[in-house]
Amino acid sequence: MSIQNIDRSILKRIPKTDLHVHLDGSVPPQLVVELAKEQNIDLVQVSKDLGIGDLQHGTVDELEEKIFKDKYDSLMEYLIPFEFINVVLRTEEALEKAAYHFACDNYKEGVRYFECRFAPQKHWKPGLGWIEIVAAINKGLERAAKQYNDLDAVKSGAEPEYKYGIILCAMRMINEHMGDYFKKLFDLHVGSDLQNLSSMASMEVAKLVYQCQEAGMPVVGFDLAGREDGFPADAHRKAFLYCYERGINSTCHAGEAYGPESIKSAVKDCYARRIGHGTQLFRKGSIYHKRNPDGSELSKEERREYIRGIVQWIADNRITLEVCLKSNSQTLPEYRDLGKHPFPTFLKNKLRIALSTDNRAISHVSVTDEYERAIKLFNLTDKQLRNIAIGGFKASFFPGTYAEKRAYISKVIDFYDGVIAG
User: For the chain, what percent of residues have pLDDT higher than 70?
Assistant: First the structure.
C-alpha cells in the first residue's frame, strides 16, 4: 500500500528516533547570537579570526545568509561552520542551554529517542574539565526529558517516555584552529604527523566514554567523524578496540565522501555497529586501493563481488546505516538530485536504515522532513515506513538493559500502531 498522501501531522505524531545528529550542527543562528551576547563574544571578530563567513554585523539574518547556508559546494565547505559555532559552546551554561533547546526541538516533532553526539575536545578550554563538558550537556538534555516525561500522556502510559543517549566523537582530521585542546596538542608534540596526533586524541575520547559510563552518565557510544579521504578509520583502531573490549558501542562516519573501502574498514577493522551515511557503498568506481594478489586492478565483476561481500557483512550483522538525506544533498554534488540516492538500494538489500538529520540547523532540517522526503522520493509502503521508524529504536545504543530496551520498544510499537490506526 502506498502512503504518498499521509498527512504531515501524522508523520510528526509517530514515534521517531534521531540517531545521527550533532549538537553543534543543531544550534540555530538565533541561539548562537544569544550565547555570544551572554559571553561578550564578538561574532564579527570571530569571523575574521577564523576566516569564516566575512561577517560585518553578526546579526541573525547575516548568519543565516553566510554561515547557515542552503547549499554547500562540498563536504569540506559544509564542515567549516562548525568551528564558528563551537566558539560559543565553551562554557557549562552555554552547553546546557544548547542541549536543552536541542532536546525540546526534537520532542516537538515526535522524536521519542535521540542520541546527541558531539566532540568534547572541541569544547574544552582551560578551567572546563572533560566530565564537566559532558555533564553540562547531559544536564540540559535531562532537564528537557524530565519536563516532557511529566506530561499526563506520558505518565499515564498513553505515550512512550522521552529517552536519549550521548555519543562522544573523535575526529579523523585535526588542526590547531579547532579549539584550545587541539592547539595545545600541536604545541606539545614535535612534527606535524596528523594521523599520529589524531589517533592519540581519539584514544582520549574513547577513555572519556568509559569514564562517563563508570560515572553513571547515559553516554552510550563512541564515534569517529570528519574528513575521510586521506584519513582512514583504521588509524584509530586502538580507540575502537578499547571500546569493543569494554562493551562500548561504536558508530563511524564512513562512505560519505569516500568509497566502499572506507565502510569495510569501519565495520571490519573498527567493529562499528552503525555507519554514518554510507552513501558510497555501491559505488564501484570509488574503490581506490583494493587490488588482486598479483597487484592488478579489480575487474568490474571483481568490484561487484567486493561490494557484495561488504553488503552481506552489514546485513548479516544487522549493522545500521544512519541515513541523512538533506545533508547528503548538500555535501555531495552527485546527490543534489536525491532521486539518485542509494536509499532504494539499501531497502532492496534489506539493510537497516535509521533516518536522521545530521545537523538540524546547518542543514535546515527536521526528522519529520526526512520522513516526508523519503516517502515522496522513494514511494515507501506503509510496511517500509513502519520498519524504518521502529528500526531506529532497535538500532539505538539504548542506555539500559536489553530487557528494558525490549520493553521500551514494545511501548513504541503500540504507540506507532495507534497513531497510524487513528
Answer: 99
Contacts of 253 (CB under 8 A, 6+ apart): 172, 223, 224, 225, 226, 228, 276, 277
Please give the grid coordinates belonging to residue 297: 586492478
Residue 338 within a domain: yes
Which CATH number fits the domain that encloses residue 190?
Answer: 3.20.20.140
Taking the C-alpha atoms of residue 13 and residue 35, their distance in angstroms, rounded to an integer, is 31
Range of the structural domain that residue 357 is part of: 8-26+95-421
119 SS3 class: coil
Chain segment 26-52, per-residue pLDDT in tens: 999 999 999 999 999 999 999 999 888
CA distance 206 to 243: 6
CB 367 within 8 A of CB 357: yes
Which of 55, 81, 54 has its CA nearest to residue 67?
81
Residue 401 has pLDDT above 90, yes or no: yes
79 occurs within a structural domain: no
Task: Please count the structural domains in the chain.
Answer: 1
On whether residue 58 sits in a domain, the answer given is no
Name every residue whose Cβ is closer than 8 Å to that of residue 156 and which is 6 or more positions away in sequence. Answer: none
- Are the beta carbons of 137 and 23 closer than 8 angstroms? yes
Per-residue pLDDT reduced to its tens digit, 49-100: 988 889 999 999 999 999 998 778 777 778 788 989 999 999 999 999 999 9
CA distance to 201, 205, 210, 346, 383, per residue, from 239 (Å): 9, 8, 11, 29, 38
Q: Is residue 36 part of a domain?
A: no
Longest dimension (CA), the chain: 68
